């Protein structure tokens, strides 16, 4: 018994069916539009929208930042400072070698109040009179969106957070330094060394 030869099936490429311009189903306006398509002139000047960056930015650094530094504090940052046994005001000054004014938005305060008795120490620290309170005009108490929106509008803040998602969002905004906690001390990224930020 011999084996039969296997025949290869011919595959036909699928082509898109086009309606001709003389087809009765087309309207008169569609026929005219197809005929009037002009070829683009290769010598014509093309207008391209270039994103506008603020004049305060020098490469990735913000030249408008200077002492006293205004630091927007996130909910997690206060909690992790307590766990690491760090005094917020003193550690910020040790990090930046200058006067720092921690700022707390209404959203962050609302988040701390929602966390309940477990985080009452963090709430007491946040109510310190040395901390500046920033009022919020939006609805809801989601602090991440509030901080990102505030930093996008006013590039005069440093954002203090340990939240990875918030860090990732803020890194996309040029000229905003991020303060974080590592090895039981505060560190800062995206800040020029001349301003007193420690080198890692």
Tell me about this structure.
This protein is α/β, with parallel strands linked by helices and 200 residues long. Helices cover 30% and strands 16% of the residues. The chain has helices at 28-35, 75-83, 88-96, 106-114, 120-126, 143-153, 164-171; strands spanning 57-58, 61-62, 69-73, 100-105, 132-134, 157-160, 178-182, 185-189. A six-stranded mixed beta sheet has the order 5-4-3-6-7-8, sandwiched between helices. A two-stranded antiparallel sheet has the order 1-2. Helix 2 (75-83) crosses helix 5. The radius of gyration is 30 Å and the shape is elongated. The mean pLDDT is 82.
Write the layout of secondary structure elements.
Elements: H1 28-35, E1 57-58, E2 61-62, E3 69-73, H2 75-83, H3 88-96, E4 100-105, H4 106-114, H5 120-126, E5 132-134, H6 143-153, E6 157-160, H7 164-171, E7 178-182, E8 185-189
Parallel strand pairs: 3-4, 3-6, 4-5, 6-7
Antiparallel strand pairs: 1-2, 7-8
Helix pairs in contact: 2-5
